[in-house]
Amino acid sequence: MSAETLTKETGEIYVSQTRRRVLGIVFLGVALLIWLVFMRGLDPEMTSTMRLYPGGSTVVVEDWEFNTLNALRILAVGCAVVGAYQLVRGFKNLTGLAFALIGGMFIFAFLSWAASGGRLNLAGMLRIMFIRSVPLTIGAMSGILCERAGVVNIAIEGMMLTAAMVGTIVGSLGTLWFGLLAAVLTGGLLGLVHAVMSIKYRTDQIISGTVINIFAVGITSFVSAKFMQAYPEINSSGIFKPYEIPVLGQIPVLGPVLFRHNIFIYSMIIFVILLTFLLFKTRWGLRLRSVGEHPKAADTLGINVFKTRYMAVILGGMMAGFAGAYFTLGSVGRFDSAMTAGRGFIALAAMIFGNWTPLGAMVAGLLFGFSDALAASLALLRVKIPSEFLLMTPYLITMIVLAGVVGRGQMPAADGQPYIKE
Amino acid sequence: MTDAEKTPKKETNEKPKVDVKSKVGIFFEEVSQSSLIIPILAIICGLLLGGVLIALSTEEVYSTFAESPLQAIGNGFKAAWEGYVTLFTGALGSPARISEAIESGDPREIRRAINPVFESLVKSIPYIFAGLAVSLGFRTGLFNIGVEGQLFMGGIFSVWVGYTFKGLPAYIHFPFAFLAGALGGALWGFIPGLLKALTGGHEVINTIMMNYVAFRLTEWLLRIPMKREGSTNPLSPIIEESAELPRFFEPPIRFHTGFFIALGIAALVYWFLFKTKWGFELRTVGANPHAARYAGMNILKNTVLAMSLSGALAGMAGANELLGLNHHLSQSFSPGYGFDAIALALLGRNHPVGVVLSALLFGTLRTGATRMQAVAGIPIDIISVMQAMILAFIAAPAIIRTIFRLKEPKEEEPGVRVSGWGGS
Question: Is the peptide bond before B116 cis (omega within 30 degrees of 0)?
């Protein structure tokens, strides 16, 4: 009961009048952008082709070819209609959805324009989007576990990096499963360090996280330079093989995009469902959240605040360790220094964007994953944008999201505050 | 529970000691209360743990461990000791070599022998600027992790001015290029400052994102617009001689004017923070935003101002490095000064004097570690590990106090507090 009301409260997004108008103007601006930038000087005979099956698929799907100019016209009008409605009436609770719709239309317009006169592997891109979203979504869930209990965790990056390295070493010496286990344990250990510093010694949680991040960069580069370059045999773990889910994997288009991955992608989906259930439907989750909302009240009711926070931060660390293992055991099979490239921080943004809920974090993770995939795919096309600018997009989107363009979510009330028992 | 049991026991042990050995006791009492004790012990602990890491990464430790564990520990200790000897002679020069050079009387040989000291000073210059940048942010309650990106922007702006304008006299050109660097950094600090003030977007994540944007921007600039003609490597053109920060000695000594500029800027920051109304407002906003707002101070203005100034200082670090040493822009001109500066600023207690002292230490460590990497094969990244340790001990003085059984200070220690995601 109380769990339900809480989610309802935190799930609601207040949209002010000014924000409504500003968003409406932004939406109309998108329509204008499509009109002025993409449609200008476009040959009316030009067509865009979208490939709908990624390489290696057994089910052959015809390419989808359409007239670029007509598609752009439809999209521009669609954006204009949504924008006008937003300006005049407003979508109220559905503002997020409208925003997503505009974003989707804009991205599709951009892709059509970029692929005009060429071919774009759309299905392959969606597949990459899912794969790239894994560390972001699982990393965000690490953040959710910690922050729902009231401990800010900006150490996700460092935890992932260290776990990625330990996972590779153990995976190279033993089996991949041992590597995964070692990565998870490494994350848990760093989570414990974060917990001791921020809960027991009441260090500022952001400083404590920074300590772990600096330490992680140092220790991984050190070990990598000292040992992993000299002994390549400890830096060749291989990766988990993709596993096709029977029946579902045979669905055209969706099959290869969704159901032919390795365990990391499936785990992500399972974790999202599991964590949503645990956080919002069980007594365990209610206690965890109460510690993050009002630790004093929770303490009065007999919940051990310190124990709950320790548990949450260590579990969060293990989650980050799992996300870190993806980089090596799930993706390239070897460790390179600084290979996480700020994904831990983007995961934090995904957590904030997702309003501290696992499902929201996954949606945000997919969005960031898409911008990652976009940069990878467009490099192959004849686009006039330099690849460096495309690589900037995830970072820029993170900043835009943080600025609260879509509306400000509700963070746990006691987030970042050390608890002092009286 | 265990802590509660320990503390009274410890006090009863120490009380009589103070009475008996009064002078020594009082001395220790004073020392344990001093504000310097935590930074000093933190450095010692950091160095010790660095030594443990060197020992653990020595192969002889493992090869002899089966035969005699004692021998293995001895090997580890030896490796750590030799590593640190290399580090300090690499950073300060070896006395034997210096006396030899003086005896020989060859000026070139003397310059070579004393070069390590100057090299350490040269390396500490970017640390002074970057450390001031981080500490100015902390003083306003802002955690600027974006110093590295701001430093790159400073480098880009200053190098561009350095090679674009030709025929300017040196006394105009190099200050112009230097200020351009400060402007570049200020711009990169202004953006997250404005975002924080207007939307509440947290500066920690925004500055980190700005770092990555700056790195990508540098890559692009070096690939196309700023690429040196006829070069296959991503390097910018070399700056005009008039834009270089003047050096004082013949090569190989690279000691340059930047050092004195850095000291001047540190004094300026001290004056600004502690002697002007603006600095007072910044510090008040940092110490207690609610009180500051109540007193009618403009939080938004101060946030933007602090981030811009912090960025300007970081930009100077980049300008100094490129105008003083490299003379061209490359992708890897900074070994992470901006990130090291976080530990440095906290070690210096966010005070300009402390920052300058810590910067000298960090410059020495980095110069020595470069030598240690070349001679003893110990990767330079060990510096980051040591810094993380130092930072941990500084940020949680209770850990140090527990390890060394120091008494709790009478006044509460000025801990570091950064605002949470909510921006309050």
Answer: no
